[in-house]
User: Fold this.
Amino acid sequence: MNNAYNIFSRKLKKKSQLTMVIIAGFLILITVVSILYITEYVQKERIASQQFMSEEFKNEISAITNYVDSCIRDTAYNGLRLMGEQGGYISVPNPGCVALSGGNLSVALRVF
Assistant:
């Protein structure tokens, strides 16, 4: 009887060890899944808040972009007009007239 009890006791210990390993495995699995879910949730919240902020500042950004574009357009137009009036020069090296063999020639281009 004592021998049968020892065999039963050993089988019970092996079963209890297996149960503990299974429980530990489930706990590790639940922990990993929870961590992955939480990190994904946090990343989605960050992206959502960044999209909200970008929508909020979209009007301000477009106003700045429009201002810069109009400034560049005006500056380019004025520079090209000045170059046309001064014969291709922004800064005329010798203002006034250019002496040619036949007489004086103005460096200004007249727009009709």
About this structure: The longest helix spans residues 2-85.
